Amino acid sequence: MPSYDSEFKSVLSKVRSHERWFSESLPxxxxxxxxSEPVRRVLSSDLGHxxxxxxxxxxxxxxxxxxxxxxxxxxxxxxxxxxxxxIDVRPVSGVVANLAVYAACTNPGDTxxxxxxxxxxxxxxxxxxxxxxxxxxxxxxxxxxxxxKEAMNIDVDETKKRIAALPSLKLAMFGCSLFLFPHPIxxxxxxxxxxxxxxxYDAAHVAGLVAGxxxxxxxxxxxxxMTFSTHKVLFxxxxxxxxxxxxxAEPLKKAVFPGMTSNHHLNNVxxxxxxxxxxxxxxxxxxxxxxxxxxxxxxxxxxLGEKVLGEKNGYTKSHQVVLDITRYSDGxxxxxxxxxxxxxxxxxxxxxxxxxxxxxxxxxxxRLGVAELTRLGMGRSEMKxxxxxxxxxxxxxxxxxxxxxxxxxxxxxxxxxxxxxxSPAYSFG
Length: 429
Ligand SMILES: Cc1ncc(COP(=O)(O)O)c(C=O)c1O
Description:
Layout lengths: L4 H19 L2 E2 L9 H7 L21 H18 L3 E3 L5 H12 L5 E4 L18 H4 L4 E4 L2 E2 L4 E2 L1 H10 L5 E4 L10 H10 L3 E5 L4 H5 L6 H4 L3 E5 L10 E5 L4 H12 L5 H38 L16 E5 L6 H9 L3 E2 L1 E3 L16 E5 L1 H5 L4 H16 L3 H12 L4 E2 L6 E2 L5
Parallel strand pairs: 1-12, 3-4, 3-7, 7-8, 8-9
Antiparallel strand pairs: 2-10, 5-6, 9-10, 11-14, 13-14, 15-16
């Protein structure tokens, strides 16, 4: 019998190497963040071994005494945080939350409106032709919001014309992945309701800004339901959730279970409850700091000569900064060039890519997120330093200087802030 002990240990050693690398890097993937140490500890608790299908109090498994209490607490805290009549913390990811909304609000063959991917949309809102979840998994026809590239936002007048021309519209999906400015929900609410459509807002990226009172407040602006990931600006465990008005609660509950989940990762439910509590306490200040940091980074990059999208409206009101890097190369090559210098960010499709013959593997942009850097305690002066580092890294000839400057900068930022007690950011060892 061969021994796999060395394989076992080698995985642990790779995890340690990963953490060491990230502790000396600039983690700027806009969909990532850091959970505090108590939240991480709960993720590795016994709850992660258990089953609890269904709603608290209506389980089909025994052993749920404390699990039910925890899930009810998560629901109560989530309702308070998002001022929602209904919250479901069971979806295991943002995509699963979106699929549950499709199942609750539409039938296969219905039409949904969303943003196209080069204009910021997400694969889970996508058409069947390219395997997007809305089309390929739920059989929806997807029609696109019109987009104003200068404003980097939905074009209200053109979209109203498109809605009027549709034979029917069952669902309008606001929210997206390249997300710089609040979406015009109020402005389009009447046109969507005139066609009988439900309004959903995908806050996967911006739920933390919504909870912190920045960006926009979808449930008060006309959205009947809001889906989100719990690990982007909202600094929790990887997972999803749904917030909605009371009217949609029952169909959404059914769509989540038995529709989209069997067991729902109970360690994550506890971690979600703890993060909602952290956010109720610290979220307002954190979200404000995130937006201020993104605006500082964008402004400084523009001053240094980078082409920052969204100039007309001040570059960004979210945690994201998007650069058009077509004068250097393509997004795939730049992502790799930056990674080699410990700047971790991702390539990003941008408006105009399709017309220019660019594909999602080699798009025209890169997206920089500041949520994680903010959680590490960085502020405006660090953002200015980071703008200089990114500029230097894009040149591609000063790798040693770039990596040394990052290492020096990171010396003072190794703890998770905006929590009940500062804790190590990379604690695995
Ligand atoms: C707009 C949007 N919706 C949904 C998702 C999917 O979220 P998850 O990775 O939690 O499934 C993402 C992921 O980045 C996203 O950007």
